[in-house]
Known about the structure:
By secondary structure, this protein is α/β, with parallel strands linked by helices.
Amino acid sequence: MPDHLTVTDxxxxxxxxxxxxxxxxxxxxxxYRAISDAINSAQQDAGIRCILIAGSxxxxxxxxxxxxxxxxxxxxxxxxxxxxxxxxxxxxxHNTKPLVxxxxxxxxxxxxxxxxxxxxxxxxxxxxxxxxxxxxxxxxEGASSLLMPRTMGYQRAFSTLVMGxxxxxxxxxxxGFVSEVVAPGETEAAARxxxxxxxxxxxxxxxxxxxxxxxxxxxxxxxxxxxxxxFGERMRSAEAVAAFQAFFARKKx
Length: 253
């Protein structure tokens, strides 16, 4: 288990917590692998009835750790993004357990797109959501190009995914991808309460109903693969190279 992640089973709830507040819980390849393993191993465990994912330190996640992401060799690979990040997205696509998220503070990039694979999202009043892929010369990921228009409607999805506009917690609730808004610092407690409520329901009926409500894993992975191929092409584009150079220059300034 990476130092920046904990996985604990609390009765029937598997709690996955990102613990890297000094880097705003930016997700490394090791963290992706560990989260994927935690989700995948829960699938055949009848004792796990619900999965909860949370951040820490008043932050959900700033998304990919860009230095780690680039170091992984994604930009020069002939098979783009066959990385632990893709394994994580596949784990989300094939997950059959109800998934609850506790979002306090920022949720950037995959920190936002992963929420569309969740069944219930609790956000704090200070939570914000953004997907600045285009600003880095990239394209959407995580099947977000399929799930976001389906949830939010095309115009809202365009504003968020293409224009990169930030979404507040209340606007996210109105858009349909946040279920409940609570005070800062109360998201995890509220999410645990929801998870316990779900765990008290008949498990087989929940699983069947969830399957009826969601796109099939095949549809999700097909879109993940399509996005991944385009994402990899974009990583090698002049636009993306210039955008990343400018990003790291701003960080050093």
